[in-house]
């Protein structure tokens, strides 16, 4: 039977498994890039508020560069321009992860910095007066108090990251949007294809929101601030 003669559900049964393959790659990009983005963002935030001036300057330049240029340009540069410069071979998936991680880290840096600076400075001064080193005070006194207030902006950024993964389709990585475009162009039934793709992205955002709500509830139960 020609695809044009299939009902909505009959056609969906054919295309949804293929969309799920793209959805898997989208989730992998979100999780891996989110992890490295959070890690780099925390390091960047510590650099950003460091008493060492060169580290502050380095963090500021990094943030300005990655927040001031389009993510699409960053993906294209890392995939097409970086390999010849460094004489290496970079496939589309690691290139996508690298671009998304570096871009997300710039935003996470500012989120972490704002969270850390929202803690009264007197707490750091009290810790130092007790003979606690700057690094230990930051790790055991300041940063733990920021967890609850950081959850909403972090989840918002992760949700944005999950949608930004669609941009890696420009380097032929078969994530959800790339697969969606290919199927839509093949069968000329864009309504059904983009409907299920939209539900896929919505699922990721709802899942992140649920995880965030669960974490906030647990922190509140434990007396988080």
SSE inventory with pairings:
Layout: H1 8-48, H2 53-68, H3 71-86, H4 92-117, H5 121-129, H6 134-164, H7 176-187, H8 190-221
Helix pairs in contact: 1-2, 1-4, 1-7, 1-8, 2-4, 3-4, 4-6, 5-6, 6-8, 7-8
Main sheet characteristics: none
The CATH C-level name is Mainly Alpha
What name does the CATH topology carry? MetI-like fold
Question: What would you say the CATH architecture is?
Answer: Orthogonal Bundle
Global geometry: flat
Mean pLDDT: 89
* Name given to the CATH homologous superfamily: MetI-like
Strand % is under 5%
Would you kindly provide a brief summary of this structure?
By secondary structure, the protein is mainly alpha-helical. Helices cover 81% and strands 0% of the residues.
Would you kindly provide a written description of the structure presented here, covering whatever features stand out?
There is one protein chain. The chain has 225 residues and is an all-alpha fold. The chain has a single domain, classed as MetI-like fold. Helices cover 81% and strands 0% of the residues. It has eight helices and no strands. α5 runs antiparallel to α6 and α6 packs antiparallel against α8 (190-221).
Characteristic terms for this protein:
8 helices; 225 residues; MetI-like fold; mainly alpha; flat; single chain
């Amino acid at each position: 039977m020609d695809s044009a003669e299939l009902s909505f559900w009959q056609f969906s049964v054919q295309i949804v498994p293929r969309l799920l393959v793209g959805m898997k790659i989208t989730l992998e990009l979100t999780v891996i890039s989110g992890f490295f983005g959070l890690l780099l963002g925390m390091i960047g935030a510590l650099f950003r508020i460091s008493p060492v001036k060169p580290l502050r300057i380095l963090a500021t330049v990094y943030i300005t560069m990655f927040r001031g240029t389009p993510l699409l340009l960053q993906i294209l540069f890392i995939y097409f321009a970086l390999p010849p410069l460094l004489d290496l071979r970079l496939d589309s998936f690691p290139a996508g992860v690298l671009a998304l991680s570096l871009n997300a880290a710039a935003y996470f840096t500012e989120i972490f910095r704002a969270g850390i600076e929202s803690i009264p400075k007197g707490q750091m001064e009290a810790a130092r007066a007790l003979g606690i080193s700057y690094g230990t005070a930051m790790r055991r006194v300041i940063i733990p108090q920021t967890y609850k207030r950081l959850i909403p902006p972090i989840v918002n950024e992760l949700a944005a990251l999950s949608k930004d993964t669609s941009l890696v389709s420009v380097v032929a990585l078969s994530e959800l949007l790339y697969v969606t475009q290919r199927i839509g162009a093949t069968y000329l039934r864009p309504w059904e294809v983009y409907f299920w793709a939209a539900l896929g992205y919505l699922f990721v955002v709802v899942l992140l929101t649920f995880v965030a709500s669960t974490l906030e509830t647990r922190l509140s139960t434990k007396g988080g601030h």
